[in-house]
Amino acid sequence: MARFDRDVVVIGGGHAGCEAAAAAARMGLRAVLVTLRLDGIGVMSCNPAIGGLGKGHLVREVDALDGLIGRVADAAGIQFRLLNRSKGPAVQGPRLQADRRAYRAAMQAALAAVPGLEVLEGEVVDLMVSGRRVCGVRLADGNEIAAHAVILTAGTFLNGVMHVGQERTAGGRVGDRAVTRLAARLADLGLGRGRLKTGTPPRLDGRTIAWDRLEMQPGDAAPVMLSFLNKAPGLAQLSCGLTETNAATHEIVRDNLDRSAMYSGGIEGVGPRYCPSIEDKVVRFADKTRHQVFLEPEGIADHTVYPNGISTSLPAEVQEAYVRTIKGLESAVILQPGYAIEYDYFDPRGLTRDLEVASLPGLWLAGQINGTTGYEEAAAQGLVAGLAAAAAVSGLEPFRFGRTDSYIGVLVDDLVARGVTEPYRMFTSRAEYRLQLRADNADQRLTGRGIDFGCVGAERARAFEPKARALADAREALEALAFSPADVAALGLKAGRDGRRRSALEWLGLLDAPDGRVAVMAGLPGLDAEVLAQVHRDATYARFSGREADGIRSLAAAMEGDVALGPELESVPGLSKELAGKLSRIRPRTISEAAAIEGMTPAALMRLLAASAPGGRSR
Ligand code: FAD
User: Fold this and answer.
1) Can you tell me which atom of ligand 1 is nearest the CA of 369?
2) Is 108 helix (H, G, I), strand (E, B) or coil?
3) What is the residue with the minimal CA distance to atom 18 of ligand 1?
4) Cα(375) to centroid of ligand 1, in Å?
5) Residue 567, SS3?
6) What is the pLDDT of residue 619?
7) Residues of the chain with pLDDT under 50
């Protein structure tokens, strides 16, 4: 038995653990990441995709602070799509599909390249505790690692149980064992614990799919990268197939509901409402006769296909039967059946804003064990915990994320203040300040602060500083002089008729697209197209952010005074069907009662408030 000393120990090599360990090491600490299998580092347990709405924002923010997920994903990207491209940048989410093997290899290479970070294969079975403070870990082989900070990121592994129909197997995910000794120790330490579940679809053999009968969806012609450091994909780009379920699929699912682990009472944990299984879809949306299925290739040299949209815990033979009712999949062979997994999580209300366990200092929790779901949510928490642990060990003021500066701040605030009753995932609607918290400006919001804090490396600082200067210079020049509508009309642009003189920046913000003629008018011929595009986005949103801030202020005042709400809130326009249903059942009388409803968003609260104001809505 040996005893080692480190500054920080990270337990788990998943999406949270990799970011936590890399962040602590970037801060100059001696960090060690201990994980069950070295070759399991960077495994994507479910779909081979990173980013999307809300999630893409989180990735950009982690990237802005020099985290790994964006760069690693770009290196493995085989299809890039900017979701909501036709809508405004505030709700656009960069997303990519990754080559699963390439992602794993890129993450392992990225960790190996972080100075001061050691990676160790092993199972942590115990925490060393002195007084009420965690001071290290014990491994299954008897070795001990003493450390000033321990970050636990065990994902779905603690007391993990996998379900396929009525078959139950202990496991952390397919191919991996469950973690029980550490789970028992954590139970003894008295942390508030619960059970959650999530599921994954069967994987198909792409060689048995009739691709020629399916509509294909290519990636974007001009791919948008996840990392601010990258310009273009490194791998060949692939298309996805599009298909859908039908009445025959639904009938098979319905007829076998009593054999589904989720529906026959075999699972006590609560599942993600926002990522429903095919069983959930058939029951909850009984009026729908079809559901879309995206057939996503899992890699370039890999025949495996991930059918996004049909996750399940039905028996394997039922999965095969329903899959084969779907167009293009009539002869599809299942390589690995879908399954559900249930696991322990800890009530995040027991954590500080830095994700440290309040009752057990020295221990930080990040990722799925805090009740979230998703790689991006896990990575974001890993970054928070890694930076916070590094600050605590180094005696620095912590790097704090707030709701006004980042989606990471929204995530942490939601978790520690409100807790979870189902797996939590990020949406743009969760952010009050979403016009300001855009994926395109994550570097402007965070990288400068990261450089000052010490978590941003030289390569990113070298890329960021000239960009920040160019943006600042362009803004200053565009704001320097005022131009009349006639000046603008003379350029052939639509100028409005209010006669008001405005700066070139304001004029730019009124245009639908960036236009170099405005820059020329302000004396900036040859302004870089990317700088112009970014300044245009900022100027466009500057027009609305005043209104956004007003809305947020009124909401805060209404919460303070617990303002009464009107009747028939479910008919307020713009609410999701789900929230409307809850409002009609729960019938909140005041704004704070409405705010307490699971899934309620700041945006929806503002709508309720506006509709309840005198003259706010015609009934
Ligand atoms: P994980 O990626 O699970 O990593 C945990 C790591 O901890 C592993 O490396 C493990 O080896 C290690 N570990 C655990 N205990 C120990 C120990 N005692 N000692 C050493 N190492 C340890 N997300 C979605 O967004 N949508 C979905 O639809 C979805 N479906 C899913 C379906 C399934 C079946 C599973 C398993 C996961 C699904 N996920 C889904 C979740 C997604 O995989 C997770 O959100 C994400 O991987 C969580 O990252 P993490 O770092 O918290 O944990």
Assistant:
1) 52
2) helix
3) 124
4) 8
5) coil
6) 32
7) 617-619
